[in-house]
Please model this.
Amino acid sequence: MIRVDLNSDLGESFGAYTIGMDEEILAYVSSANVACGMHAGDPVVMEKTVAMAAQSGVRIGAHPGFPDLMGFGRRNLSVSPAEAKAYVKYQVGALLAFTRGQGVAMQHVKPHGALYNMAAVDQALADAICEGIREVDPSLILLGLANSRMLDAARKAGLRAASEVFADRAYRDDGTLMPRSQPGAVIHDRELAITRTVRMVTEGVVETASGKLIPIQADSICVHGDNPSALTFVREIRSALERQGVEIRPLSD
Model:
């Protein structure tokens, strides 16, 4: 039987601003990536999101990003590997306090936005992120872009690594995600996204924006929680996978 994790980026509200439909989405995912206060989220939201995930039986991961609240962590920043490592340790450690307070284990770490995409192709940055994770808790799983340098860095650091694919993002021929600034980078056609996702999981391939088929390993599928149609998206993707005999299970299982 094929097994795959279904994850979403949650806990991205902060202060007076509400982003996403976290409580509803938790009914359909097996893992939650919780924002840690730098690109989104705040301590009150972190506390609430961890509690909701724990109550739902959803495994929890840290979602550290660049200190860029105004840009939602999606703008490339010029940082040294040492700075990136410190940002990751700070944020993972912060979320760890909330998971321990709820009496649940943290499962994984998934970098966010520009930090994630930059580390996919920058070995020094990927190594720094994984070193930061290891120094907080070497049992954590690194969730990184399929076929990226992050997965190599995790193995080099002695961390378990999981390969992530995206239901609603377009791919370039080198396996990286098409930048959001380009037309077609985000897939809004639910039927197309579902078909692509099922194929990634069951056949191990994805069609790039140019029409080329490239190999891809799907340990976990991400559906973005800030997408306006995220709830419908994640419900229909889960249903389609289960109809194909795919079992939805968290990474640590």
Remarks:
- Residues 81-102 form the longest helix (22 residues).
- The helical segments are 22-25, 43-56, 81-102, 113-121, 123-136, 149-156, 190-203, 230-243.
- DSSP finds eight helices and ten strands in the chain.
